[in-house]
Amino acid sequence: MSDLSLASAFPKAEESAWKELVEKALKGAPFSVLESKTYDGTVIEPLYPPAESGAVIPGRDPGAPWEITQRIDITDPGTANGQILEDLNNGASGIALLFPGAVGECGYALPADADAIGAALEGVHLEWGVPLELQLGANAAAVATSVAGLVELRDLPANHTNIRFGFDPIGVLAAKGTTDASPEDVAVLAKDLSARGFKGRFAAADGRPVHEAGGTEAQELAFALASAIAYLRAFEAAGIALDEARRMIFFRLAADQNQFLTTAKFRALRKLWSRIEEACELIPEPAFVTGETAWRMMTKRHAQGNIVRGTIATLAAAVGGANAVTVLPYTAALGLPEAFARRVARNTQSVLLEESNLYRVADPAAGSGALEALTSELCAKAWRLFQKFEEAGGVLKGLEGGLFQDAVGETRDARESAMAQRKESLIGTSEFPDLGEDDLDVMDVPPAPAETGAQAVTPLKPMRLGEPFEELRDRSDALLEKTGARPKIFLACLGRPADFNVRAAFAKSLFEAGGIEAIAATSEKTLPETIEGFRESGASLACLCSSDQVYASDGAEAAKALKDAGAAHVYLAGKPGDLETALHEAGVESFVAAGGNALETLTGAYEHLEA
To answer: Which 8-state DSSP code applies to residue 326?
Structure first.
């Protein structure tokens, strides 16, 4: 029996045929409407041809799982120890200890003293090679000395441990504005610890300060590369051979909900580091790259959405070849997470690794036209930025002169503008909020106050994209507690449900993103019934919702009726077009539509309410 080829029953797919169908669907609109741009300026095409070459980018060994790393920022050493043992006994393969002043520290950290470290690591078999990563801030040398001393006190063979000491004064300087060490100090510490038998990677080239402050993928990569080069030079100056020095360095990157860009970023870092190794006349070896789910995408409102975002980010980092991944607990923005949120973070990775088997393919993105193109674009853009910083004298000079801060600041402004206009969105915060969501529990531990003092450079201030909307929701909660009711807006729905449903849903999502409860009709009402509904609602704001055709026939009359009924401010959902003057004269004071500045609209609404 001959083989049956199913493909033979279908015509050959041609790009020209696809474009012809697309042009019909666009009905005269330019093809560019299907394209989008990254903040680095890379154009994302709607369709990519197969990659010309799909060479695997060496990362994790084929079939080797990544490390499921659990972040420990619990302030009480005994509680931290219980959490560490629970994590290691229930799926985690490694632990990251966060200390005061570290990159990503938000007021919660393990105390940086020997007793606290010893108590937290009680019962942890470091001699078994359990991965332990230190995320260090001020007093990094003292913390590392305490950890090394603990190993010696317990009479453990140092060369059997797997400790990434993670010295990163450059990252701390960028994030906090000050540091108490230098790359040269890191080289001295690395030599000492290496002489005592520790194999671990000693310096962390961390791109997270750039990402947390709103930077682009290329900016994050350039900063991490520039940091790694600074450490490499310091190691060489201290008499460490380059071939050995490169193995003392590892990388940290943020992983966010932009799946394809995150995967491309992790792949690009390996290619860029290989280029640097070649320039050093070394045979390239895969960089060790850790990932942590992004702080800037975390939300306080509908925090369960952080689970979804964290899952996407973990998937992206794993597909990109991360050697270790840390998932921030979904309640991290609310306070110090409890055990359940940490369990969810742990299980997010366990499911992807053990049940989805993501680790079994060395480089799943190899050969993908889209991901290969994004990887190449990121490499080119990051390399140009890296060269720019090198020309300025290196990463430290770049920070002292504000070069990094200026570049990241421009991107931050662009991101904040996109969030304000909801061109970027966070489900549950800026889109589709739930005003009746339940409170989530966190540990009853207040955050430590941020340290203040002289700063050597302007720090890259962390941001969360959802904060401006959360502040408006806080105002709503305060009014609810004070008066027993949230601020309200009445959605005056005109015509049939088919006329008003879409714009009513848009208006409800918009105003409730700012904590203003939207009261809407669910069925067709006459104008007198609509006006009576407004009076009964207790709202002082109103928003007309309907189709352009209904606005043309009934919009002006409805607006005038709402003003006569006492509406303090009347909005209209949609763009008015030629009706703008007539609607204004009838009483419509603001128009809300997709692409408008939602934060300005919501802030203005509170001003109208207060007036």
So the answer is: E
Phi and psi angles of residue 281, each rounded to the nearest 5 degrees, phi first: 60, 40
C-alpha to C-alpha distance for 587 and 541, rounded to whole angstroms: 12
Cα gap 238→108, rounded to integer Å: 35
Decide: 275 and 228 in contact? Cβ < 8 Å: no
Query: How far is Cα 256 from Cα 211, in angstroms, rounded to an integer?
Result: 9
Count Cβ atoms within 10 A of the Cβ of residue 307 and give its class: 0-12 exposed, 13-18 middle, 19 or more buried.
Answer: middle
pLDDT tens digit sequence for 161-194: 999 999 999 999 999 999 999 999 999 999 999 9
Residue 288 DSSP symbol: P
Residue 36's φ and ψ, nearest 5 degrees, are -135, 165
> Whose structure tokens read 């070649």?
278
590-592 β-sheet, strand order:
517-520, 488-493, 541-545, 569-573, 590-592
Task: Give CA angle at 510 (508, 515), nearest 5°.
Answer: 85
Q: Among all chains, which residue has been given the structure tokens 């493909």?
A: 7
149 by DSSP, 3-state: which?
A: helix
Residue 227 one-letter amino acid = S
| Per-residue model confidence as pLDDT tens digits over 259-303 | 999 999 999 999 999 999 999 999 999 999 999 999 999 999 999
Q: Which two tokens stand for residue 392?
A: 């300025």
The token pair that represents 88 in the structure block: 């290691």
Write the DSSP string, 378-438. Answer: HHHHHHHHHHHHHHTTSHHHHHHTTHHHHHHHHHHHHHHHHHHTTSS--BTTTBS--TTPP
Global pTM reads: 0.94
Spell out the residues 6+ positions from residue 382 whose beta carbon is closer than 8 angstroms to its own: 217, 218, 219, 221, 222, 225, 268, 272
